[in-house]
Every structure is written in structure tokens, then in C-alpha cells.
Amino acid sequence: MSRYLRFLVPLAIFAVIAAFLFKGLDMNPREIPSPLIGKQVPEFSLPLLEQPGTLITNKDLLGKVYLLNVWATWCVSCRAEHETLVQLGRMNKVDIYGLNWKDERVAAQAWLKQLGNPYAANIFDKKGRTAIDLGVYGAPETFLVDAKGIIHYKHAGPVNPDLIRDKILPMVAELRKKG
Amino acid sequence: MIPEIGHYALILALSLAIIQAVIPLAGTYTNTHSWMALSRPLVWGHLLFLTISTVVLANAFLANDFSVIYVAQHGNTKLPDLYKVSAVWGAHEGSLLLWAFLLAAWSAAIALFSRNLPLPVVARVLSVMGMISIGFLLFLLMTSNPFDRTFPVPFEGRELNPMLQDPGLAIHPPLLYMGYVGFSVAFAFSIAALLGGKLDASWARWSRPWTTVAWVFLTVGIALGSWWAYYELGWGGWWFWDPVENASLMPWLVGTALMHSLAVTEKRGAFKSWTVLLALFAFSLSLLGTFLVRSGVLTSVHSFASDPERGVFILIFLLVAIGGSLMLYAWRAPYISGGGRFDLISRETFLLGNNLLLSVLAGLILLGTLAPLIYDAMEWGKISVGFPWFNKMFVLLTPFLALLMGVGSISRWKHTDAAFLVKQLKVAFIISMVFGLLTLLPMFSGGNLMVGLGMGLAMWVVTSHLVNVKERLKHKAGFNGFLRDLSGGGRSYYGMILAHMGVAMFIVGVTMVSNYGIEQDIRMSPGDTADIAGYEFKFEGVSEFPGPNYNAHRGRFLISKDGEQIAILQPEKRTYFVQTRPMTEAGIDWGLTRDLYVSLGESLGGGDWSMRLYYKPYIRWIWIASIFMGLGGLLAISDRRYRTARKRSRSTSTLTAGSSTTAATESHS
């Protein structure tokens, strides 16, 4: 019997390699996982973009699943992803909060008026302190946060409809189910 | 309109490949002579259409037809004609077309040089080649069509990656692919033999020259790539353990093992199932290399456009090709009869050792290359396996290869007296030990063990083979005897010697350059001098000048030794018009015992530049070694044995054809 099994060894080795290769197709080798995944959204207390007099803090966002999108008017890729965000906003499936990063208030408000505003509210991070706490190294970046304020997913670079459909919305549904 | 002809020819080639894969093979089961005989004309038609496709694509580049997306992405009106042609295989789609074209060319070569093979064998082999071709042509047409059009037509093309605009890299991919694809022949012969149930000495004899030719191409292709990386990347390195480089080294190592294993199978009938397995693996690793490069599963500096959708296709292709052939192996190999017996001290044993070492090396590279992927998939975190690990593994195992090489090539088949080996190799061993120890002396290396080991091993390879040649010529009269031997049946023997001398040179080159290489990163102002290894580098400044499709900063260095000027080096930093990435062109003064290498870094303002200056002793030996290996391989396949074998099998061809027909009928029933 072992005489026959012996010749199956190469096939078995190949099967293991193929399984890893198959798994590897879904992975992005350039993706660097955010150390913040599984951690709380860092504390902040910043003015709203829309109303300079009103402050918003991380505690205000507790109690619901939401997306936190880091953007700026000087960021070309943000313009590219904006249409996708507007469409996502129209779907009413998840709240999107914006973190307007190192930007000019007037320019940012004009941008939203001109291109559409998918955001429930925008946090105005003029100095970029909160962005540093979030480990942002370039706009746009998008975080998925649960009701307890814990970050579950981070996407660096512009989001696209496929990503929203295949990854973000399923994760949102799952997080809501967990409560 | 013309690109559509190319596209159409591609589809016709696919249709012919399907017929080529099915009908002749069916013919071997039904014993229909005309079906089997169809394989040759089908292969020629297949090659014709792929030639048309390739020529059409080259023509689109030469004619600046930017309505073809692929041309718009990689062509440009200002691109020199040489690079317009090499742009055909400068990116994903076209390099696949080249793969398919070369596969058809190898198939045609089989059709041409197989007049003496029994028809059922030819039919099976060409069917298998057709099956591989189907995979590649489907891949081309479904995911990577180089003839896709775009509208509106761009005004100008985005040009070939400037890194690839180099004569060395223009011919590197075709050579490498000739090697990769060439292993498909040994693969096809093995599959055919497994299907036909006849694994014998003649199968090994047919496979041998094909394997050697593929190996020669791969050797030279890899060396050319290494040489290119050395002078073009500006880091002065010759091997980076990049996943793509590893992807070419794995089939090379397994191919080397296969060549040696085939020798045992042909001469002694032993190792049959092992040889088949190596043949399957050599080509499987070539395919796997393609997958790794194209799918984006691993990161690499050779980042051709990668795409997960293509990855899925190639993975399915791998599953069918490799999985299928290994299944066939698991099914048929248990019935392969064992070969002749041999003693513990015999050439068979030493070649087995060589085979195991080479396979283990290939396995380790596979492990190191896939480790980041495995870690990621198992969620153990991200790791990268760098050159220290690979280097350690190689330094650990290759000395044993070199030792075996000396002993194995002088021992006899079946049984060798230990006393005979000791008597023959005593002197060689002492000389090598003394030479190794001498190089450890303070005036040479100051006790650097790696240098002693490397030089001792190189000397061992040389001296043990000299003894070997002396022993062979003992009964042949002097130099004339040597010449007669060379024109007679000795070519494969001298080819082996030549290739093994290449290994010795390689060891010398690697040992010297890794232990005595000097590199210096410095800031230089015009007029400054730097002193490296007794050479004075005088920097005269940087000037700008225009190239055909780039602007260049060109530095000027005067190199002198002992006050005497020996060279002027002009390293360049080029900015290409279209793809504005800066490219370095190193300035190199080459020599047999050392290279002097200057590469421009960044401009630091005020005429100052950061510079990288290198002293690279014996680095040329690494590439010259590959020429020796390649020539050795060519000499070996010109051996009279293969020609007489051909004649012999012609005289008995009716008999063999008859017997294999019986075999076919048996397996049918």
C-alpha cells in the first residue's frame, strides 16, 4: 500500500501550495494592516466643518456603526472617490463621517456644495492631530467603526463600488447583527 | 485592420491547438495512423498563425499604431526601433504572446527532429504540447489580449518602461522563456511516456538533448538578467533574491537535477520515477514562476502589471496542468519498473546526492519565496524573507554539491572501489586543502573562513576534473588522442567538464566579490577624488545632454592607478520624457580580475552629487561561468551518440513502432 501512497506525496505537496496560492489571490501583499484595528477610535474634540462653533467628540459617535473617511480638497484621489461616497450616502445603509484633514474651511464647504455631501457630519481637523492619532499617512483613508467605537477595518486609498459592495457593506451588516 | 489579423490568427492558432491536443492522442488509442500523423502538419499551422500574430504586434509597434491599447501603453514614436520590437515582450500581454509563440516553435522543433521517433510517441508528445498551448492561448484571448483596440486613439504612446530600454533586457526575456518553455518538452515526453506506459532508456535518450538545450537557454537567460540588474539598477549587486529571480532559479535548479538524473536513467535505467518527477517539476516551476510574476500574489521589483483576475485564470491552469500531471504520475508511476542495482559507492549514488541537494535548494527557495504569502494566509503576520536567509542556505548546501561533483564525475557506474577513488583524488584533495589554507594566510584574507572554503572548493572542482581528464586520456595517445576523442563520442564528456569548470569559476567569482567587494557612498564636488582599493576616482563634474527619448545628466570620472590614468567613466542619470522616472546607467570599467563601478546618486546642489563607488573583484567570472556552462551544454548535445542513436533507432523503427502500438492497444483495453 505504501508503495502507492509514496507516489501521491508530490500531488499532496502541490495541493498545499495551491491552497496557499488560492488564498493569496485575495490578499494584497502591499497592504499594511493598521495597528488600530481592534482598538478604540482615539479621543478627539474638534469643531464641525459646517458649524465652527459646535464641537464634536469621539463620544458623540458612539452607539452606531459608521464609516470615518479622511479627505481634503487638496487631495486628488479624494475627488476621484467622492462620487462613490455620494452614491453610498444615497443608499442610506451606513452613516459616513468625514475627517476634513489639514484643509481650508471655505474651500471644503464649497467642495461639498459643488460635488454633493455624503457625510452625516464633518470633523474639521485643521492641524491634523487626530489624523496622526489615527495613523493616517495619506488621504483618502476610510475606517469602519462599530457602535462601541472600535475600529474594525481600514482602507488606504480611494474606495470603489466593488469594495463597498463586497467588503464594507457586509462588514457593516455583521457588526450591526453583533450589536 | 492589420491588428485584427493578428487577433484572428491567435484564435486560429487556438483552434489548431485544440485539434492538435485531441486528435493525435485519440489516434494513439484507436490506433488510427492518419490521426497520429496529423500532429506534425497541425504543429506547423499552429506555429504559422502565432508567427503572424507576433509579427503583426511588432508591426503595430513599428507603425506607432496607438489604437491598439497595448501599443499605446508601451510604444512611443520616439522609441528607437530596437526597443519598439522588444516592447512586444516588454509587458504582460506581449510576453505571453512570446511564450505561446516559443511554445509553438519548440513544438515545431520536435516535429522536425523526431523523424526517428515512433509515431505514437510523437503524437502523444505533440498532443501534450498542444494542451499546454491551449492554456496559454485561452489566457491570452480571455484575459490578456494584446490586440485590444481603444477609442479615441491616443496621440502618443506611454512608452516602454525605461528600465527595459536596454539591449541586454531586449534579449533577456526571449532567452529566459526559451528555457522555461523548453522544459515543456521534457514535460511532454514524460507525460507521453506515462500515458504510453513505456518509460525506458530510449525515452531518457530522447529527452536528454531537449532538456539540455532548454537548460542552456535558461542558464544564459538568467545570467543575462543578473548582468543587466548589475549595470542598470545602479546598486552594484548581481543577485537580489527577488521573487521573480527566484522564479527563474527554481526551474534552473530542478532542470540541472533533471539533466543529471536523465543521464542515470539513460545509462543505467535507474531513477526512472524520480526522473519523471523532476521533468514534471521543472516545467511546473516554470508555470508557477509565471503565476507568481503575473498574479500579484507577491511583491517584487519586477512589478509588471498584475491583476487578480488573471491570477485566478493562471491558478486554474496550474491546477489542471500540474495537478493533472501529478495525478497521472501517482496513478502510473507505481508500475514503473525499478532500474539496475548499484552499490553504495557508485556514480549513481553521487548523482542521487547531487539530485537531492539541488532539489532541496529549489525547495528552500520555494519556501522562502512563498513564506510571506504563507504567513499572511495563516494570519501569523507579515514577514519578508530577505537575502541573508537565502544566502545562508546556499552557503550551507552548495559546498556539498561541489564536493560531490569532483567525486561523482570520476566514479564508475554501478560500483566503484573506495580505494580507486582515494588513489585518484588524493593529490587533488591535498592541493585543494593546501590552496584553501593558503588563502587563509594573513596576506591574502587574514583568516576569512569563507574565502578559504570558496577557493578550496573551486580548486577541488578544477583539480578533480583534471585528474578525471587525465584518467580518460591515459589510454589515448597524447593531444591527438584528445582531438580524436573530441570528434568522436567524447563530446558530452567534455561538455560536462566544461560546464563543471564554469561552476568552479562561479564559486571563485561569488567568493571574491562577496568578501572583497568594496562600496562607498560619498558626496563629491567637481575636482574631488576618492580612493578605493588603490584606485583613484577623480570626479570632474556633471553635464547635461539630450538622448533620443530622454535627457541625461552625465558624470565624468578619471580613474587612475599609481598616478597613471586607466579609464574614463561616464555614469548617467536619465530622465525619460514620457515616464519621468529617473534611470541610472552605471559607468563601469570592466576587467577579468575587477570591475570599477560608478553610479550617480542625487544632485545635492552647487555641482555636488552623491555617488556610489564600487570595487568589484572577479565579478565577471560569475557571468563568464554561465557562458562556460552554456557552451558545455551545447558541446554535450553535439555528441555523436545522439546522432548514432538516431540512426540506430531508424533501422529498428519498424520494430519500435510495432511494439509501442501494442503498448497503446494494451493501455486502450
From TrEMBL, chain A:
It is a single-pass membrane protein. It comes from the Bacteria. One of its GO terms (molecular function) is disulfide oxidoreductase activity. InterPro entries: Periplasmic_diS_OxRdtase_DsbE, Redoxin, Thioredoxin-like_sf, Thioredoxin_CS, Thioredoxin_domain, Thioredoxin_ResA/DsbE_sf. The keyword Membrane applies. The keyword Transmembrane applies. The chain crosses the membrane at residues 7-25. Keywords: Cytochrome c-type biogenesis, Disulfide bond, Membrane, Redox-active center, Transmembrane, Transmembrane helix. Residues 35-173 form the Thioredoxin domain. One of its GO terms (biological process) is cytochrome complex assembly. Belongs to the thioredoxin family. DsbE subfamily. This is DsbE family thiol:disulfide interchange protein. It comes from endosymbiont of Escarpia spicata.
Automatic annotation (TrEMBL), chain B:
Its main location: membrane. It comes from the Bacteria. It is found in: Cell inner membrane. Residues 315-640 form the Cytochrome c-type biogenesis protein CcmF C-terminal domain. Residues 651-669 have a biased composition (Low complexity). GO terms for molecular function: heme binding; heme transmembrane transporter activity; lyase activity. The chain crosses the membrane at residues 6-30, 42-62, 96-114, 121-142, 177-197, 209-229, 249-265, 274-292, 312-331, 352-374, 394-413, 425-444, 450-469, 493-518, 618-638. InterPro entries: CcmF_C (IPR032523), Cyt_c_assembly (IPR002541), Cyt_c_biogenesis (IPR003567), Cyt_c_biogenesis_CcmF (IPR003568). It is a multi-pass membrane protein. Residues 648-669 are annotated as: Disordered. Pfam families: CcmF_C, Cytochrom_C_asm. Residues 89-295 form the Cytochrome c assembly protein domain. Keywords: Cell inner membrane, Cell membrane, Cytochrome c-type biogenesis, Lyase, Membrane, Transmembrane, Transmembrane helix. One of its GO terms (biological process) is cytochrome complex assembly. One of its GO terms (cellular component) is plasma membrane. Belongs to the CcmF/CycK/Ccl1/NrfE/CcsA family. Required for the biogenesis of c-type cytochromes. Possible subunit of a heme lyase. This is Heme lyase NrfEFG subunit NrfE. It comes from endosymbiont of Escarpia spicata.
